[in-house]
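Reference record:
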Amino acid sequence: EVQLVESGGGLVQAGGSLRLSCAASGFTFDDYAIGWFRQAPGKEREGVSCISSSDGSTYYADSGKGRFTISRDNAKNTVYLQMNSLKPEDTAVYYCRLGGSNHWGQGTQVTVSS
């Protein structure tokens, strides 16, 4: 059974940092891209970043370029999202998703106070 478990969210002041983790199980982790998404209250879910399975290439939405860094540790079946210089508009529930599937984690809340 595919499982994705996010952690690392919390309350932080503007300008602060958080590192989110997405721990995966139930599939061959090395073979799949993983993406991070977020959903703010009253808004649609949007893509934040993703990392490929093969060469570790990465993608960032404009909202996170220069501030967010995605990485993966295949030995730990975990993908990370390092978020720096956080802004109040980054407040959302953050989800990870198995690439090419409809498997999502339960989400982790990130709240950035001004």
In short: Residues 18 and 83 are 5 Å apart (CA to CA). Strands lie at 3-7, 10-13, 18-25, 34-39, 46-51, 58-60, 68-73, 78-83, 92-98, 108-113. The two ends are 40 Å apart (CA to CA). The longest strand covers residues 18-25.
